[in-house]
Amino acid sequence: MPRSAIINVMIQAAMKAGRSLARDFGEVQNLQVSLKGPGDYVSQADKRAEQILYTELSRVRPGYSFLMEESGAVEGDDPQHRWLVDPLDGTTNFLHGIPIFAVSVALERQGTLVAAVIYNPAMDELYTAERGGGAFLNDRRMRVAARRDLPDCVIGTGIPHLGRGHHGRALVDLRNVMAESSGIRRMGSAALDLAYVAAGRMDGFWEDALQPWDTAAGILMVREAGGFVTDRTGGQDIFGTGSVVAGNEAIHRSLLKILQKPDS
Ligand code: IPD
Ligand code: CA
Ligand code: CA
Description:
13 strands, alpha+beta, D-Maltodextrin-Binding Protein, domain 2
């Protein structure tokens, strides 16, 4: 499968950041037993990974702008291009020694997502997508699952926690989706949730209160794997609303319908 120069640049950067995270993850596993815990260590690991991504991407494309979780927005000379970077998606998993986390990098050109890389270093799984060029998992073409009936489906979600999100609405959504599907998963990494939908491992996914760096790469991945992704109203304002709903055409439609049910 021929890859473009830009996706190669992104793969190199994401894998380098991923290797740094993998080294730090080994230490985090040791720190679980210490009284202080691995909190400070994890935030350093996160920043190190982001620094690697920033250095690598700006070295090969000097003028491009950035939106990074840890360092925020950096305006480049070329406002047409913007990197959206989450150096460590799945921080809570990483902190607890659970090997479900990823580096997520997307490239926007004039506001359109054109390239995406998600890398899970613990499983050595590399997901890539380019606009119009399809989506791949370790060089194998990805397609969303074909199941059309929710009762046959496994659906991913994110559950809000202490100090985050709208707990009441999340419980209503959870109750409604669990009543109609064959299982719900909460993996703890929105980037990997979307990558799993693209890979056909999960049939659908929804979550609220996400940030652009959580979803950017995964959105392109699902679309290039033949799936549908919108905000929870069915519109395209995923970054603005923070909500995301994904699946094949039928499952995406069923999820939207359920998520629009009133609170009571
Ligand atoms: C989080 C993960 C998680 C989602 C959270 C995100 P982080 O990102 O994607 O699955 O439920 O809302 O903030 O903090 O690990 O980069
Ligand atoms: Ca994230
Ligand atoms: Ca993060």
